[in-house]
Amino acid sequence: MKPLISVIVPMYFEEKIVEICYTRLTQVMSKETTYDYELLFINDGSKDATLTLLLEKAKQDRHVKVISFSRNFGHQAAVSCGIAYAKGEALVIIDADLQDPPELIPQMLNLWKQGNEVVYGKRKRRKGETWFKLTTAKIFYRLLGWLTEVEIPVDTGDFRLIDRKVAEVIKALPEHNRFLRGLVAWTGFRQIPLVYEREARFAGETKYPLKKMIHFALDGIFSFSAKPLKLIINIGLLAVLVSLGVLIYSLVAYLSTGISTVRGWTSLMVVITFLGGVQLVSIGILGEYIGRMYDESKGRPLYIVDKTYNIERQDE
Ligand code: UDP
Ligand code: MG
Predict the structure, then answer these.
(1) DSSP 141-155
(2) Could you identify which of 8, 16, 67, 294 might form a hypothetical disulfide with 82, taking C-beta atoms 3.0 to 4.6 angstroms apart as the criterion?
(3) What is the ipTM of this complex?
């Protein structure tokens, strides 16, 4: 029997894309590879025709499997669900909007055959993205690299192939705030980049508005680094040192000239507001960690599956 490859496609309000996405994936998987395959579409609570269209496909084609969530749980939850349901020897994670070309999958499979357990798409160029998104993404990946001990490859999205071994590790991770590209890097194994040009979105709009992007970025930072906490200590120490310096300066000035240095309101206000700011930011950082601990401690599921189609048997 031919080994099975699972292709995981999260979908959120992608009615304009279902058809072309299915066609291109099917074309590649049936014509350009020698493996058996399954296309796992995860409907992440879309309220448009995405699910209806997916079901039509599932009726016609046994390769199509659909898992539908009870509401929107987010991109990372949808991909995690795909990983949990996938049966393949290798899993390919790809966005629905064809920004990541499905035609690269055969190359990924070749690299996998050569013994690499993770093949991650590395974006050489991104078309059709705003200047703002490109710059913020660039800064974010550099900042993340500096903050974390795990080496998370820069300019890499979720478009990747992972071996079953890696999938099993990811499945066993209990964490809720998922930053999958980081988690995959964290697992280790043999990882290799595949450089490509990221296309513009085929149709529809990005599902990552600024707010979600910020949340996602914070997930990356706070789930992979405790450095912000250490940073707080350093800033605190620095503030103490500066205030000690000012104290000594004032004392010396007073003792040598006899004039006390009550010089004004401005400097006082600057110091007070600065320290107030530092304290609030510090509490905020603590809050981020505590909030995440709270999330984890509740132990709620990552997602709730409403219905599945063409999925015969559920593992675990
Ligand atoms: N997506 C999802 N749930 C969400 C947001 C996005 O399943 O809450 C899917 C979306 O349908 C797409 C992929 O995640 O297949 C990436 O989203 P998008 O293309 O909007 O992100 P961008 O490429 O703009 O970063
Ligand atoms: Mg996209």
Answers:
(1) HHHHHHH-SS-PPTT
(2) 8
(3) 0.93
- In this structure, which ligand is nearest to the CA of 74? 1
Read off the pTM: 0.79
3-state secondary structure of 306: strand
Between the CA of 208 and the centroid of ligand 2 the distance, in Å, is 8
- Pull the structure tokens for residue 282: 């510090």
CATH of region 4-207+301-309, choose from 3.40.1790.10, 2.60.120.10, 3.40.50.360, 3.90.550.10: 3.90.550.10
- Burial pattern 74-112, b for ≥16 Cβ within 10 A else e, equals bbbbbbbbbbbbbbbbbbbbbbbbbbbbbebbbebbebb
Angstrom distance (rounded) from CA 42 to CA 61 = 16
User: pLDDT tens, 165-205?
Assistant: 999 999 998 888 888 888 888 888 888 998 888 777 777 77
Spans of all domains in the chain? 4-207+301-309, 227-298
* 35-45 tens-digit pLDDT: 999 999 999 99
207 CA distance to ligand 2 centroid (A)? Answer: 7
Closest residue to atom 22 of ligand 1, CA basis: 206
Question: 260 CA to middle of ligand 1, Å?
Answer: 62
**Nearest ligand, CA 67:** 1
